Amino acid sequence: MKILKYKPLFKERCIEIFKSNMPKFFAAEELQPFIDFLDRDIEDNYYVVEKDGVIVACGGVFLEEDGMEAGLSWGMVDVNQHKAGIGKMLTEYRIDLLKEVYPGKIYKVDTSQHTAGFYLKRGFETIEVIPDGFAKGIDKYVMKMGAIA
Q: Residue 128: how many CB atoms within 10 A of its CB?
């Protein structure tokens, strides 16, 4: 497996990965914001995981406009590849990248009840839970990791 910088030619595969995670992990109403993100907001901070020549995961990092917090954005693994260590590898890569590119910041991730435990294991703490915060049946967990130099 290898991690590559996102390129527009990966867009359709990333959309397929997103759709593979519907409706449990992502709601249908989140698809268009994800597509808009791929079209406009990725800058140089979005990545894909290639396994055996196929893109199987994607995820990025960001810095808030006010510069106070940085975090993980739109991380996902093809549903057929869950529990294979791919999400762990990509998440650890992105956390290491945050520490390198945005040292000393508070790191955040907005996730759901289905993946909050995954992020707890990586050092994030739940700050807030918003019932149905992403969509009906998908609660929003706002999670943060303290400043790390």
A: 11
